[in-house]
Amino acid sequence: QVQLQESGPGLVKPSETLSLTCAVSGFSIRTDYWWGWIRQPPGKGLEWIATVSHGGDTYYSMSLTSRVTTSIDTSRNQFSLNLTSVTAADTAVYYCARAGGNWKPYDSWGQGTLVTVSS
Amino acid sequence: SYELTQPPSVSVSPGQTASITCSGDKLGDKYASWYQQKPGQSPVLVIYQDSKRPSGIPERFSGSNSGNTATLTISAAQSMDEADYYCQAWASTTGYVFGTGTTVTVL
Question: Is a pLDDT exceeding 90 seen at residue B92?
C-alpha cells in the first residue's frame, strides 16, 4: 500500500525559500502515476500548487508559477517542492499526493506538514 | 481562471439524505471528483469520474454531474459522515481546481 510522507522545515522566514520533500514508500514512483502538491491555509480550503509526472513533466498553478518548482527523484523514490520569496500568506499545511495519471484525481495523500512563515 | 462554488454548510438528520452541490461553468463537460476531510486529517477521495467510488468507500456516497452542477449525495447519513467536502475538477487553463468546500453537519 502506497504511503506518502512530507518532510521539511516547519518554520521559514519571510522572503526565504520553502523546501519540502515527499518520500513515497510501498510504490514505485517510476510507474505511470503523477505526483502533486496541495496546500491548505489554517481554517481555509484546498489549493493546488503543482504536479510532476513520473517522467518529470511539470505543471504549476497560475497564481504561483513565478515562485514554485517541483521535481522528481526516481532514484530516491521521492519528489520535491520549492517555493521562493515566501510571505505570511504561504503559511499552510502542505500535502503531497498521488494521482492516477494525467490530471486524474488524487487517490492517496500524505499526512500533511504545517509550514509557518514568520520571522 | 476556472472556479468551483459550493455552499458553505449543509445540515442533515441521521438516516436522511444530504446533497452537496458544486457549481462551475460547463462543469458537466469535465470530470468531477469529491474529497472528504475530517478535522485534523488529510482529504480522502470518495467520488471520481463524476460517480465512481474508490475501493472502501461506502455505497451511501454517490455522485452526478450535468450542466453546470455536480452533486455529491450522502444517503442514510451517519455521524461519521460529518466532515468538510471538496469538489475538484481539471480545467485546461487552470489545472486542478478545488471547490470552496462544504461543512456537513449530522444532527
Answer: no
